[in-house]
Structures are given as C-alpha cells and as structure tokens.
Specification:
This protein is an all-alpha fold. Helices cover 87% and strands 0% of the residues. The chain is built from five helices and no strands. Helix 2 runs antiparallel to helix 5 and helix 4 crosses helix 5. It is elongated and about 65 Å long.
Length: 134
C-alpha cells in the first residue's frame, strides 16, 4: 500500500517535471542563461559570506583599538602588500575597510548581473507566450 503511494507520487512528480520542461522549451527559455544566473547568484552569496568574515577582524580592531594583528595574518598580508603598492603606507584599518568596500561593490555588481539575466529571460518568455496565444 505504502509503496504504491510512493510510486504514484514519483510518477506524478516526473510528469510534472516533463510538463515543465516542455513548457520552458515552448516559450524558448534558454537553460544556459538560467545556469549562468545561478552561478552568479552563488558567487554573490560567497562574496557576501566573505564580507561577513572580514567584518569580524574589523570589529575586533575597532573594539581593541589595534589592527596590528592583521600584519601577522597570512591571508591579509598579500592584500596589504597590494594596497601598499597601490596607495602607499596607510593604517591597517584602511586596508581592511577598502577590502570590504571593494568586495561589497563587486558582490552588488554580480547580484545585479544575475538579476538582469533573469529579467531578460522572463521578458523573452512572456513575449514568446504572448506570440503563442495570439
């Protein structure tokens, strides 16, 4: 009895997936656009997590009033060397703040690009559905 119920649910789910795929093909939704948008969204989430991870040292430095621990960080040393060449000598606070700012800007650009791709696909799908109806 239970196995028959599970089989019916599997069959109905597979039929629903097949109908969805047929619909997406009919309205000419391109899978590669959706996959690229999903990849960009995952990258945006990763960058967001990176920003959150960098906020902890920033808060620690602000609370303690000392950012000297960043000089010993093996992760932050290459970043500080890069900024030293780019901007010249500055306090470590600015290196960390600039890094967080740049990552947030890049994250927003990536998220915006993912949204534009989805909007483009939605608009194309609506136009194709309209053409099929009329």
């Amino acid at each position: 009895m239970e196995s028959e119920k599970i089989e019916r649910e599997k069959t109905s789910l597979s039929q629903a997936v097949i109908q969805l795929i047929k619909f997406l093909v009919k309205v000419e939704v391109k899978a590669h656009y959706l996959i690229f948008s999903a990849i960009l969204s995952c990258l945006s989430v990763f960058l967001n997590l990176l920003v959150i991870r960098l906020l902890f040292p920033l808060a620690k430095g602000i609370i303690n009033g000392d950012f000297s621990f960043l000089a010993e960080s093996r992760i932050f040393q290459p970043i500080s060397v890069f900024y030293l060449k780019l901007f010249g000598p500055m306090p470590d606070f600015f290196y960390l703040a600039i890094t967080i700012f740049v990552i947030v800007i890049v994250k927003n650009i990536v998220s915006y690009a993912a949204s534009l791709i989805i909007i483009y696909q939605a608009k194309a799908a609506v136009n194709n559905m309209r053409d099929h109806i009329l």
